[in-house]
Amino acid sequence: MVSKKCNENDIRVMFSAFGQIEECRILRGPDGLSRGCAFVTFSTRAMAQNAIKAMHQSQTMEGCSSPIVVKFADTQKDKEQRRLQQQLAQQMQQLNSATTWGSLTGLGGLTPQYLALLQQAASSGNLGAFSGIQQMA
């Protein structure tokens, strides 16, 4: 939620009060225009934490619909976990909209154990059954 009018120097100035910045980069599309997102790398984690505490949702920048979001970047593990959760939600939606188990389509690639777990959760309404889903995936 960074203003698309900001450049790297503007972002550096905004965050320099929190410590030494090693790298500052604005995410840009293929056309070279800002995507409204920037990555700032501080010398220490403590500096980053101070920036997060002070800056997260502290202001709404020009041209943005919501306040600035300042957080640690998502790791690859975070991204994979979010992708698995989205897949699970889609599969649960398929299960909930099916009238009978025999009419399900698109779930043929699931292992019998995974399908059984989906059936159990759908019938009991217990999504807690999916606490171990990452190990199965």
UniProtKB/TrEMBL annotation:
Keywords, sorted A to Z: Repeat, RNA-binding
PROSITE patterns: RRM
Transmembrane feature ranges: none
Source superkingdom: Eukaryota
RRM domain span: 1-75
Record-linked Gene3D superfamilies: 3.30.70.330
Protein name according to UniProt: CUGBP Elav-like member 2
